[in-house]
Amino acid sequence: MKIKDFKKEYCSGCSACYSVCPEKCISMQEDPEGFLYPIVDIDNCIDCNLCENVCHGTASLTERRPVSVYAAKNPDDGVRSASSSGGIFTIIAEQIIKEGGVVFGACFNDRWEVIHDFVESEDKLFAFRGSKYIQSRTGDGYNKVKLFLGQGRMVLYAGTPCQIAGLKLFLRKEYENLVTVDLVCHGVPSPLIWRSYLTEMQSNLYPPPNLILFQITSLFFLHTRNSHADIQNYHC
Ligand SMILES: Cc1cc2nc3c(=O)[nH]c(=O)nc-3n(C[C@H](O)[C@H](O)[C@H](O)COP(=O)(O)OP(=O)(O)OC[C@H]3O[C@@H](n4cnc5c(N)ncnc54)[C@H](O)[C@@H]3O)c2cc1C
Ligand code: SF4
Ligand code: SF4
């Protein structure tokens, strides 16, 4: 199946096709529900098929069983309370940075959109802590991962299982210096709904927030005036 003929039900919006296109003729655009899908500029497409080859939605992937299962939690109470589960992500990320590596994860940008970005120091890891229950834009991250791996640096990429599948197919080979962490995930809510919600909240009652925390049963905004509001249930 051609990406230009793709069906939405096979697409997670991982952006691997966008990242691999040598002609830069794929753009990731929101559909009316706000989810990202690839749009191909057919006039500039050279039919190289690279985009199809990296698509986890149509690839025949072999099922992998867990090799081992461990349960663990971060002993640091502060880190654990800022994380959505046991805070293991932070422990792995800190180790990668100690080894001179780079950590990719999901964070908010200055417009409170969720994007994938990277950090190279432990004091910046806080931005990735905690689940953001919105589809994250991977953007040009896969190409940056490839660049860092090529430089021989350790890379940790943490994200949803479809983002990890997209990254691995995009890379097309195993790298010893790549560590991936995917989370238990049953789907991502739409960025469009999130934007509408933010607009509604900010225009009605409150100044712009300086911290937003998603929790298992509720979503908190922490505003600049130190007021906060428990707004609504928003678990995925
Ligand atoms: C979209 C989504 C769906 C989830 N669905 C389930 C579920 O069905 N059942 C369940 O038990 N748990 C679910 N979770 C919770 C998830 O499994 C926990 O966030 C994770 O276990 C936290 O581990 P931690 O405490 O080590 O990491 P934390 O320190 O909480 O770190 C969170 C990690 O999640 C990544 N992340 C955060 N938001 C996103 C995002 N929007 N897209 C991609 N990566 C993101 C960050 O990069 C970081 O690496 C979901 C989380 C997300 C983000
Ligand atoms: S076939 Fe090649 S040129 Fe055309 S959209 Fe796919 S990757 Fe780009
Ligand atoms: S590579 Fe990713 S974004 Fe592109 S069509 Fe496949 S699943 Fe969708």
The count of helical stretches stands at: 7
β-strand percent reads: 15-25%
Tell me the overall shape: globular
Mean pLDDT: 87
Strand order of the largest sheet: 4-3-5-6
Q: Identify low-pLDDT runs.
A: 223-236
User: Structural class, from helix and strand content?
Assistant: alpha/beta
Let me know the number of strands. 9
How would a crystallographer describe the biggest sheet? 4 strands, mixed
How many independent structural domains?
A: 3
The kinds of small molecule bound in this structure are: flavin-adenine dinucleotide, iron/sulfur cluster
Order of helices and strands: HEEHHHEEHEHEHEEE
What gyration radius follows from the Cα positions, in whole Å? 19 Å
Distance between the termini: 30 Å
**Can you give the helix content as a percent range?**
25-40%
Question: What's this model, at a glance?
Answer:
The protein contains 7 helices and 9 strands; from the N terminus they run αββαααββαβαβαβββ. The protein is of the alpha/beta class. The chain has 3 domains: 3-53, Alpha-Beta Plaits (2-Layer Sandwich); 77-182, no CATH class; 191-230, no CATH class.
Fold and architecture overview:
- This protein has 236 residues and is α/β, with parallel strands linked by helices.
- It folds into three domains: 3-53, Alpha-Beta Plaits, CATH 3.30.70.20; 77-182, no CATH class; 191-230, no CATH class.
- The chain is built from seven helices and nine strands, in the order αββαααββαβαβαβββ.
- The strands form three sheets. Strands 4-3-5-6 form a four-stranded mixed sheet, with helices on both faces. Strands 7-8-9 form a three-stranded antiparallel sheet, with no helix packed on it.
- The longest helix has 14 residues, at 191-204.
- The model is unreliable at 223-236 (pLDDT under 50).
- Bound molecules: flavin-adenine dinucleotide and iron/sulfur cluster (SF4) (2 copies).
- One iron/sulfur cluster binds next to α2.
